[in-house]
Specification:
It contains 1 helix and no strands. With 87 residues, the chain is an all-alpha fold. The relative contact order is 0.04.
């Protein structure tokens, strides 16, 4: 005949199960919070490359304008000082 568990053993098992359930619930909450933070971080990181591309395009446009100005500069200087272009 099988021996019946003592009340003390049954209480310990119930306590252990209750602790396990609470631990799993806490773990699930932590996991949910982590996934939420991860999604926010991914959104923030996705903004970076777009902003960098826009910034690069602005810098490139400025450099092109400066290049045009510099190309015209020798002629403007000659005109201001009254020299004629060298042939």
């Amino acid at each position: 005949m099988a021996k019946r568990p003592k009340d003390n053993d049954a209480n310990r098992l119930e306590d252990a199960l209750a602790h396990l359930i609470r631990s799993q619930a806490a773990s699930a909450q932590q996991w949910t919070a982590f996934v939420g933070r991860l999604a926010e971080t991914e959104q923030e990181l996705a903004i970076g490359p777009r902003e960098n591309a826009e910034r690069f395009a602005r810098v490139e446009a400025i450099l092109l304008r400066h290049e045009k100005i510099l190309q015209c500069l020798p002629e403007v200087i000659r005109e201001r000082i009254g020299s004629r272009p060298a042939n």
